[in-house]
Amino acid sequence: MAYLREIITDGHPTLRKVAKKVKPDEIADPLFQQLIDDMFATMYAAPGIGLAAPQINVSKRIFTIDLQDEEDDHGPFVVINPKYELTDGEIESTEGCLSVPGYVGEITRFERVAVSGLDREGKRIRLEGDGLFARCLQHEIDHLNGLLYIDRVKNLREATTEDEHEALEEASTLP
Ligand code: ZN
Q1: Topology of domain 13-171, per CATH?
Q2: One of 140, 164, 169, 170 is an active-site residue; which one?
Q3: What is the pLDDT of residues 83-93, one digit of tens each?
């Protein structure tokens, strides 16, 4: 059984903390597994394509991601203690965040990234990609470091177009 957790918004101090590393022996704990289930349920209900634990007021290094596309291998994934293995290129795109409701803006990020971490069984995983997937990975890792896209956004504005509303589901619209 999964439960919806409240998504906290900009101004809440937990969003500004550097989240704590998860101890590998904590992963098998039923409460931790419950946290993962609740994160997925909360992300899908929002609706969002990514969610980091600090967004539900849990200061731990874990995020969920699911681009909800069927053609590519873009989730669902849960990544615990993520680490960049590769960063390459630069691209600017429109981004929004579930914790900054109603607003979007342009942000420059790496075009391609590879991220390693642990899955919900404590096994090592590595995710690599570009486009929306890469930007979403970076957006979620930023949350674990107490950063929000509005910290270095250009042209922050209220979402009005369809594309801008899509960007509110975390991360960015496709260029
Ligand atoms: Zn966000």
Answers
A1: Peptide Deformylase (3.90.45)
A2: 140
A3: 999 999 999 99
